[in-house]
């Protein structure tokens, strides 16, 4: 009875979330395709030809996994942050709060929305990459899917926490601009951390995005700057911490109940 | 059985505002109950706490016996809430809004679609089911919120000023609908600023002011406490005459214009004497109405009394 009820509530939130980003597909699905095409053209084709190889692979091949992961991160995050904040702003979050939907179901429902958008965008960016890379090979499909799912879940949770705390629309753009983008750019999307001199190579390892990009790159190309076990452990640990934080915040009604 | 039972409910907001100062309130199953009060009195806070949108500071809330603190899931299933402000996603269609709401209560999609058809038809919104909510008129949006609150078939419907900004024709049709569903067994709690609405629809009333319930009784008993009413009489003088000097004996009266008079009638006096005296003078009464809504007069009196500083008791 309870599991059937929770399943229906979860299904409802997920369908609602997917309907939302599909209704505004020009804002949600098209921009990543355009942005990533530009990255492939500029960094891959034009600059990449002069760089030659990185990590033993042509530069264009090297950046494909990073760019896909970058799309997954930004789309998961912005989907949940903007959807949750809009629901809070328009007060339709109250539709869920008055109903007997559990906090865990709300969180998983929003993650489901972020994950769906991230997967669609990942497929689009992968298809775009086929235009620029002749020989796309997948080293380990299971690791690839697992990394995408875990990363998307983590950044959906981060977006949710941002949406919970946000009081204005500015608040949900500050984190992507000042935290997410620098972490992503410095997370080994465009370079191998082995190129970093001395201490900076160690500092870079404090960046969680590095582990996601490298785990994904391993799944794609079979190469990584850090061990796969370490990468997956770091991602899972962050997921647990962020889920707990989101749960506590929602359960306490932070930002949504007075 | 009590549909709602509140004991010692207090709410202190961050910043120290004490919106509710320990109220007690009971609403019987099947009742049509009015919760009245001026702006900022604590009505919406009370409703927010019952619907678990606002955290209480202390006190006990039970809905059909289910406790807010220990049986929240069951308590929520009993309640349908129609809030004061439009709080649906304006970009979703009418059908999506009501079906999704049912889904949050665990109603399977097929059943939710059946119920959506039933309630949207009853509320005259079926033709608009595929339209985005933002395209609806104000009155339609109000009806959409009622449909949304009914989709999971609650036993207690709470409406926070449901007819605010709705024209009189639509308001009356909404009253008729609410009376129908109340007859079918749904307990209704209503807050409103239209006291005529409370007088027409509700059987019992609580008046709240400054976080305290200052009156909790039946509408009939409340109206019975009214000692004096002012009636406006539209009159016509005897044929060919002008309305000249009028003699109304013991009554206080005024003549706001040439063809109407206002008469203050004490409860002990009765209206027959007014008609007798006008009739003797050849004056015909064409129509009569209360100058002000009766409940409104009482409401204003009660709130003013409640706000007067209490006198210190003196020792004898």
Automatic annotation (TrEMBL), chain A:
It comes from Pseudidiomarina salinarum. It holds the Pfam family ABC2_membrane. Belongs to the ABC-2 integral membrane protein family. This is Transport permease protein. InterPro entries: ABC-2_transport_permease (IPR052522), ABC2_TM (IPR013525), ABC2_TM_bact-type (IPR047817), ABC_2_transport (IPR000412). It comes from the Bacteria. The chain crosses the membrane at residues 21-42, 62-85, 97-130, 142-162, 174-200, 220-250. GO terms for molecular function: ABC-type transporter activity. It is a multi-pass membrane protein. It is found in: Cell inner membrane; Membrane. Its main location: membrane. Residues 23-253 form the ABC transmembrane type-2 domain. GO terms for cellular component: ATP-binding cassette (ABC) transporter complex. Keywords: Cell membrane, Membrane, Transmembrane, Transmembrane helix, Transport.
Automatic annotation (TrEMBL), chain B:
It holds the Pfam family ABC_tran. Residues 4-235 form the ABC transporter domain. One of its GO terms (molecular function) is ATP binding. Coiled coil: none annotated. InterPro entries: AAA+_ATPase, ABC_transporter-like_ATP-bd, ABC_transporter-like_CS, ABC_transporter_ATP-binding, P-loop_NTPase. Keywords: ATP-binding, Nucleotide-binding, Transport. This is ABC transporter.
